[in-house]
Amino acid sequence: MQAGHDVALVLTQPDRPAGRGLKAAASPVKRFALGRNLEVFQPHSLKTDGSARIRAARPDALVVAAYGLILPQAVLDVAAHGALNIHASLLPRWRGAAPIQRAILAGDAQTGVSIMQMDAGLDTGAVLAQSGVAIAADDDAGTLHDRLAALGAEMIVATLADVQAGRVLPVPQPQQGVTYASKLGKRETLLDWSRPAVELERAVRAFRPSPGAATLLDGAPLKVWRVTVTCGRGAPGELLSISDAGLVVAAGKGALAITELQRSGGRRLAAGEFLRGHRLAPGVRFG
Length: 287
Hints:
This protein has 287 residues and is of the alpha+beta class. It is 23% helix and 26% strand. Helix 4 runs antiparallel to helix 6.
């Protein structure tokens, strides 16, 4: 809108239950659109309904960002310039649903944004623009998402200008280097203490701020929000030492100092504050 485009129709998913009362809540996209008197459409599926409504808007191009519904070919064919997807990875690496988390989990040094011409495949279309960013040692899924979102916003505006001017050159994705960023599973968030500490530290960052990495203590779930890799040897999951600076837990290789954690139903606490309310002694096992 700030770039001067006429937004003919805004699609966002149906209102979802949210909050303690589980009342239907509008997405931020819907709230933004209604606040600017834009027409909003919230289909449950685009396979059975949607293409006629989108066609009636007579779009020159569709812009897609983290929409979450499959666009069938009938929708992809509606606009003269097709559907342009803002994807948070350097394609063909990390096609799929969770590219930001998978990049952190894998220990990638770099990721980025690809503006892609959508086709019937899973993030397989030609790339119209691409820009990389470094993944910092303290990045989590939240901080990286926000940087990539800002970059993607700049890139889609520039790409639309290139499309409009006929300057865009679609580049087919190479067959080499294809990886898939599958959707996160709940079991993945449970820390496996037999893994090296460096991998567990990446998992904590990849699952922050949502859904959060987890472990078990005395059979009860415990969220692990912040950790640092440290030295230590012991049975995987064994609590080696405790201090206000952190709870040091042995991993398959090395150890983790848990510096922020949360009991089920409680609030997030720094290690020192947690210890003042929970008695722990070395030798206790997490798992």
